[in-house]
Write a structure and sequence with these properties.
Shape: globular
Oligomer: single chain
Mean pLDDT: 91
Number of domains: 1
Distance between the termini: 6 Å
Radius of gyration: 15 Å
Order of helices and strands: EHEHEEEEHEHEHEH
Strand content: 15-25%
Number of strands: 9
Low-confidence stretches: none
CATH topology: Rossmann fold
CATH class: Alpha Beta
């Protein structure tokens, strides 16, 4: 299978995610040339210190997403605490305080599903460590619309339930370690085959 060159990457994670994201982001080059949209389940009162940390350790610019902000390549956008993050069809970001989905706001499924309509089939979805099933439905939708779906190898996760849920549902095309995910995303974005 050789999906078309991707236009965006969406990443979802929960418990254990900050460490996993730190490792993954450190592997992405400045010339990645794609936006990376992230939902990390957070406490509603979480401050922005994690963005400062990631900006010190990552070649891409990391920031909290803002409502109606245009998506730019080479940036990593985090859903703010207690807001769903969506991508509108024109490529702008949207924030929503709608009800929690699977007990979560931000919800991984909400981001993934909106990104399908903005980017699929030129979309890569990634599920990392986490302790629930959020993201499984969204990953299925990405796959159904011709995008590429990846799960962190559950054997390498601090909390394997989230990738296991997606794998069990048949939503995952590739199961990779964080190092392999970083290499695959770089190759996919910067050229080369996606086989």
């Amino acid at each position: 299978m050789s999906p078309q060159r991707p236009r965006a990457i969406v990443v979802g994670t929960s418990a254990g995610g900050l460490a996993a994201l730190g490792e993954l982001f450190s592997l992405l080059p400045a010339e990645l040339g794609l936006p990376v949209l992230v939902v990390q389940h957070l406490h509603p009162k979480q401050d922005a210190s994690m963005h400062a940390f990631f900006n010190r350790t990552c070649a891409l610019h990391v920031k909290e997403a803002e409502d109606k902000e245009p998506v730019e390549p080479g940036r990593i956008y985090f859903a703010p605490p207690d807001y769903h993050l969506l991508v509108e069809r024109d490529g702008a970001l949207a924030l929503s305080a709608d009800e929690k989905v699977r007990w979560s706001r931000p919800s991984i499924d909400v981001l993934f599903e909106s990104a399908v309509y903005a980017y699929a089939p030129a979309l890569i979805g990634v599920i990392l460590t986490g302790a629930n099933g959020d993201g499984t439905r969204g990953l299925q939708l990405i796959r159904e619309h011709g995008g590429l779906t990846i799960a962190q190898d559950p054997r390498t996760c601090e909390y394997p339930e989230m990738p296991r849920s997606a794998i069990a549902a048949g939503a995952v095309m590739k199961v990779l370690t964080l190092k392999e995910i970083g290499a695959f995303l770089t190759q996919s974005a910067c050229g080369g085959e996606n086989d």
